Every structure is written in structure tokens, then in C-alpha cells.
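Q: Second attempt. The first request was missing the SMILES, so the protein and zinc ion are both included now.
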Amino acid sequence: MTLIILMLTYNINCDKMIIPIRCMTCGKLVAHLWEEFNEQVNRGKNPRQSLDDLGFDRYCCRTLFLTQKDLIKDIMKFDI
Ligand SMILES: [Zn+2]
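A: Got both inputs this time. The predicted holo structure:
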């Protein structure tokens, strides 16, 4: 619960991303690479190749990035 609150607080202040700071399974720092991953994918790069280039070898971290969806704007509508 604390982690979720920290994530929401961070996102309310920067209004950019809502992704865990660390992988919840292995503990690897992942949040600092989220925007770079998004930029590469938006430029048309294959997500698989992008994850390989960013150094994500474990399935847990790869799943975190591939299944992430930014919902902060949807949540903010409810003024929590
Ligand atoms: Zn991981």
C-alpha cells in the first residue's frame, strides 16, 4: 500500500508516469528507463529489441514494461 501511495504521489507531482520504481518481483530499478522505452517504441522500434537494448533480461521486468498502461489521467478525474 505504501508503494502505491508513493507511486501516486510521485505521479501527481510530475504528471508523467505511473510505473513502479522497482520491479516488484526481482527488485531491479526500472522506472528510470520507462520514458526511454516509450520513446523508442513510439518511434517504431520493436518492444522486444528495445527491452534487450535497455538490459532487461528477466521475464518479470519485461512483463512489467510490456503490460504497463498510464492511467494517471483517468484516475485524476475522480479527484482522489
Ligand atoms: Zn524483475
